[in-house]
Amino acid sequence: MTSFTTEHGPDRGTPTIAQIAQELGVSVPTVSKVLNGRADVAASTRERVEAALERHHYQRRKAARPAEGTGLIDLVFHRLGSSWSMEIIRGVEDAAAENHVSVILSELGGVHRPPRAWLDATLLRPPLGVLMVASRLSPAQQRLLARRSIPVVVIDTDGEPPADVPTVGSDNWNGGLTATRHLLGLGHRRIAAVSGPADMLCSRARLDGFRSAHAEAGVAVDDALILPGNFYVETGYSAGHELLTLRDRPTAIFAGSDMAALGVLRAAHELGLSVPRDVSVVGYDDLSMAAWATPALTTVRQPLAEMGGLATSMLMDLVEGRHPQTRRINLATELVVRESTAPPG
Fold it and tell me: Which of 167, 173, 213, 226 has a CA-to-CA distance to 37 between 20 and 30 Å?
């Protein structure tokens, strides 16, 4: 049976589930079902019970950790399917293996807020903890998991998370800054950017770094050369075609991801342009394929596997009842110069 608070709760002011059931005029099993995410409770009753649990700040006592090899952590991506996500998975898997737990994957179909269906399935499992990648919970969802003692850590947050939610990311602003400084230092003055999704913090930070490098050098940014993207090859390809067919085309392009940069390289090739003779290209991430591109891609390295590993270690600290030394980790990025950049011809 699931372990709940004692007869009088963790302090005498906290009611038990029996007292909450009596207050609402429902059965103890009904309150227990809501606590455990069971679906067989009427929606109106569920709402009343959840409101009462929140009103009384009820939190289930943390259960003992399962035997080694039986615990699960839920790794939640807003979107899967790229080498970027595989690098994070690798870091999480390695750290999880060291802690003798298993990893299950969830995908949100491109949205950054988990739907109710994900929450219901998670509460039915339930996992030891949750890792959110480029997504985060609503305050209400966070409170529901907290009441069930399921900790959450966010990797590469899509926005500013609550102060009490640990996060692991990288210095995206500095990455955009150093990439653009490199191009400006080579003599480029007409530099385009293919950004990532506007609703992701990392995209906005990289673009802010791009703008800051221009301001630092006293070079005006041409906003007509900044095109939206989604970090995938297709938008890099279409943006590359659009930019490189301009009458006054850019001499360099900063892509918000390596995948987008590969799309730009393909567009340049189809248009009969040589990289870097006719246009320089910089990517972002330093995925393994970047070194194998033709030409080898200059890019900004962010330590994706390390981010996944550190986030998993933070989550396991919370699972074990330990407080992480810090709740904000922002790892350094590094420019890796290869063959796709050169002074303008």
Answer: 167
Q: How far apart are CA 135 and CA 161, in angstroms?
A: 10
Q: Is the dihedral of CA 194, 199, 202, 206 positive or negative?
A: positive
CA gyration radius, the chain: 24
Write down all domains in the chain, each with its CATH number in brackets.
Answer: 1-61 (1.10.260.40), 72-169+305-330 (3.40.50.2300), 172-303 (3.40.50.2300)
3-state secondary structure (DSSP) of residue 277:
coil
How, if at all, do strands 298-301 and 334-336 pair? antiparallel
Work out the angle at residue 183's Cα, subtended by the Cα atoms of residues 263 and 160, and round it to the nearest 5 degrees: 70
Query: pTM for the whole thing?
Result: 0.79
**Which of 165, 250, 159, 235 lies closest to 204, judged by CA?**
159
CA angle, residues 332, 337, 341, in degrees to nearest 5: 130
Nearest one of 135, 153, 132, 246 to 197, comparing CA atoms: 135
Q: Which residue has the higher pLDDT, 118 or 189?
A: 189
- SS3 (DSSP) at 18: helix
Please, which residues bridge with residue 329 across strands?
168
Beta strands in the chain (DSSP E): 72-77, 102-107, 129-133, 152-155, 167-170, 191-194, 226-227, 252-255, 280-285, 298-301, 328-331, 334-336
Q: Distance between CA atoms of 277 and 259, rounded to whole angstroms?
A: 21
Two tokens at 19?
């007292």
**For the chain, what is the mean pLDDT?**
86
